[in-house]
Amino acid sequence: MTAECSDASQGSSAGVSPQPEDAGVSLLVEGLVVDRGGVQVLNGVTFAARGGRIMGVIGPNGAGKSTLFNTLTGLIEAKAGRVLINGKSIQDSRGSVAFVPQRQNINWDLPMTIYDMVMLGRTRQIGWFRRPRKVDREAVADALEQVWMWEERDALVNELSGGQQQRIFIARALAQDVDVLILDEAFRGVDFTSQEVMTLVLQDLRDAGKTVLLASHNINYVRRLSDDCLCLNRSVVACGPTAEALAPEVMEELYRSVDIYRAYESGQN
């Protein structure tokens, strides 16, 4: 299977990497190599994602999913390879990508209201030491409305449930009005209502032409929600339309575990 995640209607040929100028390619990763602590975590990762599509990212623990996301957002420097966002480097495309990390990696003890937390997403537009403008307040209100949290805007973030906290962080990303949204295990440990709200938000972003990357251990959820799927285990095992990427032989190679594969199969019934 080609290591290109793209809309099949574009007519891409297997084994031909898309170029930044290709129509619809918003995120291009080529030959990405990342070392952490002297250990190679990612090896020659190559794929492309297009606007108006949701890409699921799956793989076993230690596969490098979080490292990939941290590299795409400039938090980790790659040893080799390149990342282009709308044809620009990570440094030149700051403000085009929003990242929602795993909830346990966020300090929720800050004495901050929901409204103020989401307003932080407008920092780049507002500038440091300046007051929010009408357009900034409207962006925050719209983001909170989308995640069904406007009525709770004056509550403190450390008083929220896990699902509500995750919705707030997604709202902060929405307020940035970016082209690419990256979420790391956003659905882990959240309530059903929050799952449904976040699903609607991601689908709306896709319909608006945005690019969404979503890492999840819930394979069945990825299968239902994503248009494309990147199967990662330090290198790309498969990448393409979700129905093709989640083929039985790919799952067996990706996880190398009969138990996990059987669990996946049982979830299809």
Task: Compile the SSE list and pairings.
Blueprint: E1 25-36, E2 39-50, E3 53-58, H1 65-72, E4 80-85, E5 97-100, H2 114-119, H3 123-126, H4 134-146, H5 162-175, E6 180-184, H6 192-207, E7 211-215, H7 219-225, E8 228-233, E9 235-241, H8 242-245, H9 248-255, H10 258-267
Parallel strand pairs: 3-7, 3-8, 5-6, 6-7
Antiparallel strand pairs: 1-2, 1-4, 8-9
Helix pairs in contact: 4-5, 5-6, 9-10
Description:
By secondary structure, the protein is α/β, with parallel strands linked by helices. The protein has a domain at about 1-95 and about 210-269: P-loop containing nucleotide triphosphate hydrolases (Rossmann fold, 3-Layer(aba) Sandwich), CATH 3.40.50.300. The protein is built from ten helices and nine strands. The strands form two sheets. Strands 5-6-7-3-8-9 form a six-stranded mixed β-sheet, sandwiched between helices. A three-stranded antiparallel β-sheet has the order 2-1-4, covered by helices on one side. A hairpin with a 1-residue loop joins strand 8 and strand 9 (about 235-240). Helix 4 runs antiparallel to helix 5, helix 5 packs parallel to helix 6 and helix 9 (about 250-255) runs antiparallel to helix 10 (about 260-265). It is globular.
